[in-house]
């Protein structure tokens, strides 16, 4: 009927497989896809064969595993060129700055780093190191911690396999996987991430992850303010960051929080 969405099961299954592969730290066997997506084994192989023929998936025969292909990469680069997330988030971030009087950012996760894609600087506030295009270690930033907390333990472990992955800026911050995990557990408990002077002394940042419909952190909303802000004001600022992250998540059809462990 006109005006009603028509669901195509095969299309949903294809998208589920592509989304699943995109969330994995390494290529995966077909059995894992079958198990985690609860698909019939025959359906999984049919989908993978079709996706491989069109270049969206690569079959690594020697490893008996599957990964995303060049066509999927082309989709990703098209997304970057069109920058829909930045367009969607700019107005909510601007409103966040207007309501709080502090500088706000939108960041995305890229490996062990965060990349800042939007900076909405509050009038009269000094410039920060987190300008657009800047990359910083994810484990040191509120932005990164908010997104890392939404990943699985296995994904975080794959990102930080060795102690030398834990760089610091001012000799503060987690220096081991166990220390990072404690921070991420506390971040999930609170519902927001905090960074206090680990990037820039004297400044505090709070961040909330923006999750897609599958629970993957596509971005985080961050607000930065002086460390002398009263506790009551900080509580209000956290609520405003949550409100903004919720607005961005709503615009992309995603969700706000994840209970990932």
From TrEMBL:
> Could you tell me which InterPro entries the record lists for this protein?
GAF-like_dom_sf (IPR029016), HTH_MetabolicPath_Reg (IPR050707), Tscrpt_reg_IclR_C (IPR014757), Tscrpt_reg_IclR_N (IPR005471), WH-like_DNA-bd_sf (IPR036388), WH_DNA-bd_sf (IPR036390)
Q: Where is the HTH iclR-type domain?
A: 8-70
Where does the IclR-ED domain start and stop, copy by copy?
Answer: 71-254
Query: Could you name the domain of life of the organism this protein comes from?
Result: Bacteria
Gene3D superfamilies, per database record: 3.30.450.40, Winged helix-like DNA-binding domain superfamily/Winged helix DNA-binding domain
Keywords for this protein: DNA-binding, Transcription, Transcription regulation
Q: Which PROSITE patterns match?
A: HTH_ICLR, ICLR_ED
- What protein name does the entry list? IclR family transcriptional regulator
Lineage, highest ranks first = Bacteria, Bacillati, Actinomycetota, Actinomycetes, Pseudonocardiales
């Amino acid at each position: 009927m006109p005006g009603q969405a028509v669901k195509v099961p095969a299309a949903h299954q294809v998208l589920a497989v592509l989304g699943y592969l995109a969330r994995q730290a390494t290529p995966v066997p077909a059995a894992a896809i079958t198990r985690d997506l609860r698909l019939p084994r025959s359906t999984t192989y049919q989908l993978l064969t079709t996706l491989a023929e069109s270049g969206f998936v690569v079959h690594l025969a020697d490893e008996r595993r599957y990964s995303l292909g060049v066509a999927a990469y082309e989709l990703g680069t098209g997304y970057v060129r069109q920058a829909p997330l930045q367009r969607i988030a700019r107005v909510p971030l601007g409103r966040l700055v207007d309501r709080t009087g502090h500088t706000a950012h939108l960041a995305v996760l890229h490996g062990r780093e965060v990349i800042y894609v939007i900076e909405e600087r509050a009038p009269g506030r000094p410039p920060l190191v987190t300008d657009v295009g800047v990359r910083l270690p994810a484990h040191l930033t509120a932005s990164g911690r908010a997104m890392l907390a939404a990943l699985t333990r296995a994904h975080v472990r794959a990102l930080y396999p060795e102690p030398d992955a834990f760089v610091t800026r001012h000799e503060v911050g987690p220096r081991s996987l166990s220390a990072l995990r404690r921070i991420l557990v506390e971040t999930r408990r609170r519902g927001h991430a905090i960074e206090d002077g680990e990037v820039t002394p004297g400044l505090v940042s709070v961040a909330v992850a923006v999750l897609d419909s599958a629970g993957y952190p596509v971005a985080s909303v961050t607000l930065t303010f002086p460390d002398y802000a009263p506790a009551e004001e900080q509580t209000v600022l956290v609520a405003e960051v949550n409100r903004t992250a919720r607005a961005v998540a709503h615009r992309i059809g995603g969700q706000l929080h994840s209970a990932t462990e």
